[in-house]
Structures are given as C-alpha cells and as structure tokens.
Amino acid sequence: MKMEDILSNDLKELSDTCLNIDLKKYEELKQKLGLDKKEFHLWFNNEYPEQITMHLYSSVQDLIDKNEEIIHTTQVMACTTSLFLKGYKIFIHPYIGDTFELKLGDNTPYTHRLINMGHNLYRLLIAGEFDTADKVVTW
Fold first, then answer.
1. CA 27 vs CA 52, 69, 121: distances in Å
2. 42 close to 76: Cβ distance less than 8 angstroms
3. Which residues contact 90 (CB under 8 A, 6 or more apart)?
4. Tag placement on the chain: N or C end, fewer CB within 10 Å?
5. Are 18 and 61 members of one domain?
6. Closest by alpha carbon to 88, among 33, 47, 50?
7. Are residues 48 and 70 in the same domain?
8. Are residues 72 and 87 in the same domain?
9. Where are the alpha helices (DSSP H) in 21-50?
10. Domain carrying residue 18
11. How many separate domains does the chain show?
12. 23-64 pLDDT, tens per residue?
C-alpha cells in the first residue's frame, strides 16, 4: 500500500470521526497525523500582532489552503468548523476578556451548546453566543 493511500485513509477516518464527534478518537487521529500543532487566532480586539495578522479574507483562505501552521486574522468569516477538519485549534481573542479556545464538543465555560460540525461559527460569534458577564467577544 502506498504512503499516499495510508495518509488518505487516515484523513478520511479523521473526517468521519470529526463529523460523528467521537472526540477521543478525533484527538488521537490529529496527533497521529501531526495536525495538533496548527492554530487559528481570530482577533476582535486591537492587540493583534500587526506584522503577521491577515485582514483580507482571500489572504486568510490562501494561508488555510497552504496549511500554514499559525494564522492570525481579524476575518470572522474565515472561522468555520472546516478548520477542525484541517487540524486547527481555534483561539478567540475577544473584544473584552481573556482568550479562549473553541473546541468540538463541550464548550460549557463559554456557551450552553455543544459545538459540532454543523454549526456556523460566524453566526454564533456575531450573535454573542460566547459572551458572558466578564467577556464580550464582538465589538
């Protein structure tokens, strides 16, 4: 069996696992494939690192397509659940409050819903789903 076929099968298994939200297996597969080091940082405040933060949607999509390890952006539209399939950890830097990570499954400290692949993260973020008494995500 070719290495590409093995990798392709592993990626399909990762995708299937992610879609069915078997979180333990999802995390194991991410580590096996070396996808646990990628980060996506979405900034709502003005403290972003200026030299490396992307403000254009097309620039962010190019970085995602190239599998850039660490992406910083102010483009909320680029924050989608497909990032989980590509192995990204998603970090939200809110307008007011501490940075937090969005994860598939239980986000109890941030919202009362389980995040799954069918959710539209853009709509959840803009609607204030992750706002609390001491944290305001959007401006």
1. 28, 17, 20
2. yes
3. 40, 42, 79, 83, 84, 101, 102, 103, 121
4. N
5. no
6. 33
7. yes
8. yes
9. 23-33
10. 1-35
11. 2
12. 677 667 766 666 568 999 999 998 999 889 999 999 999 999
